[in-house]
Amino acid sequence: MVQEVVNNRICLVVLGMHRSGTSALAGTLGLLGVTLPTDLFGPWPSNPKGHFEPYTLVAIHERMLAALHTAWHDIRHIGLASLDSSTAQQFKAELIKALQTSYNDASLFVLKEPRICRFFPLVRSAIESFGALPRVVFCIRNPLEVVNSLRARDGTSLSHGLGLWLRYMLDAELHSRDLPRVFIYFSEFLQDWRTIIGRIEQRLGIVLPGRSTNAANAVDEFVESGLRHHVANIHDLKGQVGDRGWVLPCYEAFVELVRNPDDKAAMEQLDLVRTEFEEPASFFGRGIKEYYSELARLRRVNAEQAEQLEKIKSELEGLRLEHGKRE
Length: 327
Description:
By secondary structure, this protein is an alpha/beta fold.
């Protein structure tokens, strides 16, 4: 059992793959009195209620990925050891400064940014140097729902999306094992957030300050089933991936960790999946990264050209109107 921590700053780290409900959970924690970052990354069409993550940290994480010659959509293992010590220390110092900017002297705050899953050891070290104790809340969502959501947002293929889900989830789970942590289902959270929040409090030995206020009404309005645009069950997942491979046993292991976060058999299963996944991920990962990097570049070019075209159209319309006035 996790003992309650007294007179210490606590950082609730929300871990989980992109599109796994981490934003909904972080936003709820904020409404219940947990300090959110001051430099919030704003809402997007794909996430209209907001991301609830610090903009400064997102920018640092992108530069970290670039320094490691990778990207958020790369399924290969990230070796932090490949960073020379001075570069690693520089990024750690930047992370600590960003935490100070985002949270100041908050005693209980939430840190959510899916890329943290890829280099959690370095982020954890920064959190601890910042003077806070990390506590982990792991968001679990059916990987088929995650992939369908990624496809709608980014055009991600089924195989690539499943590979990303494996990479993010396996990395984050491994590097958070020695911390107090709790695993939650996104679908159950949407159905009954009160029970899930209670489980988080009990497991992590904390009390959310907003639980004793009228914040529940605000959370009821914030948490709605409409946040879950893509729905799938275990049978749908089996229909897509079959009984073999890595995705199904990985997901089933996380199901067990939701029930019991200390389940050793489940963690052993995840170790086995990780071992089998590494070689093909390394072999195919470079080509996948190059393909999606080029796709992203072409999308940026297309967006820039569309913007230029609209500008030209606007200028032509202005000239037409001006010409009409002269006549």
